[in-house]
Specification:
The complex is a heterotrimer. By secondary structure, chain A is mainly α. Helices cover 87% and strands 0% of the residues of chain A. Chain A has two domains: 46 residues, no CATH class; 198 residues, MetI-like fold (Orthogonal Bundle). Chain A is built from nine helices and no strands. Chain C contains 14 helices and no strands. Classes of the chains: A mainly alpha, B alpha/beta, C mainly alpha.
Chain lengths: 253, 287, 289
């Protein structure tokens, strides 16, 4: 019954939001539906068949996107691990430090990665470095949150049992908490790797290099056939990454 | 005599000042492994104290059952003894040394002598039985060796021996989360034994087990404690288990000790007083 | 000695100490292992290889760290200027934020409706036609694999600039997301629940509305609130590829060096994101219980 009431409230709220948003944006679903014809026509005539052009450039761009995503995720994982321990109240007893870490992480992740990129561009100028640094910034925000959630869940019982033996906090962390948390850490790491491959493509669209840059360039030149190849390459990378992370999750967990 | 009486009264009133060595010796003769005097604990969020004015002592190798309804303060009492919970007032002495009001490093040192067994076993599920058992030695190692998990071969040999004696010899390298509840609790007991404790605190050790397994665990705890002269304080919800395996019973209700005496003397009326309801209802609901 | 290792039934036999023979060997051994190396290996291999891959990636990216470090003071300057909030054109910022929120809500709702229908068609236990389920799942994978801004860019090229393109592009992605997670959600509904309703002689649509949907309500609620968080973040950057909203305001302010104005806009975006995150956490906690 409780869930039914929740569902009804949820529906009412959703409906109210729908009406307000529609009135505000004057979005007409019929128009959108009619435009679908044109959209698919555009896709099928201009994008298909994909034109393979400058394969070398495509390959380099794909490599650069992957480097950005992997490098940024790896660096973020190390930073987030440290922040995660500092931000978990059960492990780091300095409440102020914990609150600062959690606030900092929340600031990093709640500003969209593209906005970070624009702020960094203002200081560093356009380039791959900006892409990597902004990916690191938002990934540290995300991963720290998930690491803290994981540690919070694990810490209680394990810490109590090991502290009762007279062990200090550092051995408790390395001998019990880290091994217990490792599968979740890895799962979140893989999740962020997936997100970052997507994000690095988007960052490319605003000039941070990689496949995104190439694709936007083709679209701007109305070279849709080549753009289509780039889009398929992006989709292939992401599907590939998905399959790989699914496989790793199965093997490791 | 008079001095002892005064000092004891002060202690039971829960004086916050530290006892002098002389006073300590008068009040707490050394054969007592554990001394609790005027212990009081009020949680910050609660208005009523969880434990109030509890005073008792436990001698070497004595098996003491703490019984009482849930919420009587049994768990808090146990956790105050190794300071997993910070007592609000009172004194606790482990082998004549005060654990209340001393710095964290000293607490860690004293905790090595206090083994603890938990209701939910509190093992690290992904680690092997051996790794879990070796955790009992961490308190005796330097931080660096502890961080790296460099246990001495002597300790490991000891672990294998005790595991074998507790019929866990076949499971040394099994993951702890793959074991049955009874096996997990045996690992929990062995981990506590690895500390070479002089006191064993058991917090509802059989509450998550079926009757047959519960019996095995209680027998194991009783045997090792008698063999090694370990004083044991075991929280039990079930009166029958307490009556069967303990030498002495402390009955708690509402944070206070309402009975403290030999198990043999525990009458039905007493049990009813502890639990605040008639015996026949307890038999059905108690287990 | 070797005979003992080879014959497990011998190893289980106990001698007078009550210690089995294989363990006696173990006790005599110089070094007793405590871990289970076999089970730890995959994790170890994973950690080492990710470390190596990270190092390789970072070095192949060939970044000029010296130059980057030299410009950190400039980054400090930018932050400093951004913190001097300027309320110039603040009403416009709020208006575009409202647009962004409206776009993310509309995309969410259209995506939700289409996603539930698509989820029902592609959940393998209730699909009307098995191959359809497989085809739809591939479609979801492809749509989701292409980042949202790319879809928006494509829609823009055919529908023109404006919020409608944002709604369509974002909704498209949203639809694929919901289609995927809802089909999994519906597949998790226990067979008995479906059978119980089937036994009453209900048809396919009645089964869906009376058995499957009620059983997955809490899951739908949790995923929807989670997706709203994502939608909002996605919608707020759409302006940067030309679909309007608060992203465009930030972009315009940054590129004309009005850092104070951009700073205020970023703070407003952040505040709203934080609020949705807190709301989602609350909803997730409620639903779990």
């Amino acid at each position: 019954m409780e869930s039914r009431r929740a569902a009804r409230t949820f529906l009412y709220v959703l409906f109210a939001l729908f009406v307000i948003s529609t009135a505000f944006t004057k979005f007409n679903p019929i128009d959108a539906l009619l435009a679908q014809g044109e959209f698919w026509n555009f896709i099928f005539t201009d994008f298909i068949p994909p034109r393979i052009q400058r394969l070398g450039a495509l390959f380099t761009a794909v490599k650069q996107t992957l480097y950005m995503a992997i490098g940024a995720t790896g660096v973020s994982a190390v930073l987030s691990l440290i922040l995660g321990f500092l931000g978990t109240p059960a492990i780091c007893r300095f409440r102020l430090v914990g609150a600062l870490v959690r606030g900092f992480a929340s600031l990093l992740r709640n500003i969209p990665v593209l906005v970070w990129a624009f702020i960094l561009v203002a200081a560093f100028g356009i380039g791959t470095a900006v892409g990597v640094v902004s990916l690191v910034i938002s990934t540290v925000g995300e991963l720290t949150r998930y690491f803290i959630e994981t540690l919070d869940e694990i810490a209680g019982e394990n810490i109590e049992a090991l502290e009762a033996t007279g062990a200090g906090m550092l051995p408790v962390i390395t001998q019990a908490i880290v091994p217990a948390a490792m599968p979740s850490f890895i799962a979140w790491f893989l999740y962020c790797l997936e997100l970052n491959i997507r994000a690095s493509t988007i960052l490319g669209m605003v000039g941070a290099g990689g496949i995104g840059l190439l694709m936007t360039g083709y679209i701007k030149q109305y070279n849709y056939g080549a753009a289509s190849t780039a889009i398929i390459a992006v989709a292939a990378i992401i599907i590939g990454a998905n399959l790989l992370t699914d496989y790793l999750r199965r093997v490791i967990l | 005599m008079a001095r002892k009486a005064t000092a004891a009264r002060e202690v039971s009133r829960g004086l916050s000042r530290k006892l002098s060595r002389a006073e300590r010796e008068v009040v707490y003769p050394l054969r007592n492994i554990l001394e609790v005097g005027g212990l009081k604990k009020t949680y910050r969020s609660a208005r009523k104290p969880a434990v109030k004015d509890v005073t008792f002592s436990v001698t070497k190798g004595e098996m003491v059952g703490v019984i009482g309804p849930s919420g009587a303060g049994k768990s808090t009492l146990l956790r105050c003894i190794n300071r997993l919970v910070e007592p609000s007032a009172g004194h606790i002495l482990i082998g004549g040394e005060e654990i209340t009001g001393v710095p964290a490093s000293k607490v860690r040192q004293l905790r090595r002598r206090i083994g603890m067994v938990f209701q939910h076993y509190n093992l690290v599920g992904r680690l092997t039985v051996m790794q879990n058992v070796m955790h009992g030695r961490l308190g005796y190692m330097s931080t660096l060796r502890g961080v790296l998990g460099l246990y001495s071969e002597e300790d490991k040999r000891q672990a294998v021996k005790i595991l074998e004696q507790s019929e866990l010899g076949e499971f040394l390298y099994h993951r702890a989360d793959k074991l049955s509840g009874g096996q997990k609790q045996r690992v929990g007991v062995v981990r506590a034994l690895m500390q070479q404790p002089s006191i064993l605190l058991c917090d509802e050790p059989i509450a998550s087990l079926d009757p047959a397994r519960a019996q095995v665990i209680m027998e194991l705890i009783r045997n090792v404690c008698k063999e090694r002269e370990i004083a044991c304080l075991v929280n039990l919800h079930q009166v029958e288990a307490a009556a069967k395996y303990t030498d002495r019973i402390i009955g708690m209700n509402g944070g206070e000790v309402v009975y403290d005496g030999p198990t043999a003397n525990l009458s039905e009326q007493m049990v009813e007083r502890v639990y605040g309801k008639p015996m026949d209802q307890l038999m059905i609901k108690g287990i | 000695m070797n005979a003992n290792n080879a014959a497990p039934e011998l190893a289980a036999e106990k001698n007078e100490d009550g210690i089995s023979l294989s363990l006696k060997e173990c006790l005599k051994a110089k070094k007793i292992p405590i871990r289970d190396a076999r089970h730890e290996r995959p994790i170890r291999v994973f950690l080492y290889s990710s470390f190596i891959l990270t190092v390789i990636s970072m070095s192949l990216l060939d970044l000029d760290w010296g130059k980057l470090a030299g410009r950190v003071p400039r980054l400090g300057g930018v932050f400093w200027e951004m913190l001097h909030f300027s309320t110039e054109r603040f009403p416009l910022t709020l208006l575009t934020l409202a647009e962004t929120v409206a776009v993310s809500i509309l995309a969410l709702i259209y995506g939700l409706i289409l996603g539930i229908a698509a989820g029902a068609l592609s959940a393998s236990n209730i699909t009307p036609w098995k191959p359809l389920s497989v085809i739809l799942k591939c479609v979801y994978a492809f749509i989701r694999a292409v980042p949202t801004p790319v879809w928006v860019l494509l829609v823009l090229a055919s529908m023109g600039f404006g919020m409608a393109s944002g709604v369509v592009g974002l909704g498209f992605h949203c639809f694929a997301f919901f289609g995927k997670v809802f089909s999994q959600l519906f597949e998790e509904v226990p067979e008995e629940t479906i059978e119980a309703v089937t036994a009453t002689g209900a048809n396919r649509i009645q089964i869906f509305f009376n058995a499957v949907l009620p059983a997955s309500l809490s899951g739908i609620l949790a995923w929807t609130s989670l997706r709203f968080e994502t939608n909002y973040i996605e919608a707020s950057i759409l302006g940067m590829v030309g679909a309007g909203g608060v992203g465009y305001t930030i972009l315009a302010a940054m590129s004309s060096y009005k850092f104070g104005r951009a700073g205020l806009a970023v703070s407003v975006v952040f505040a709203f994101a934080l609020a949705t995150e807190l709301l989602t956490t609350q909803i997730k906690r409620k639903v779990k219980m």
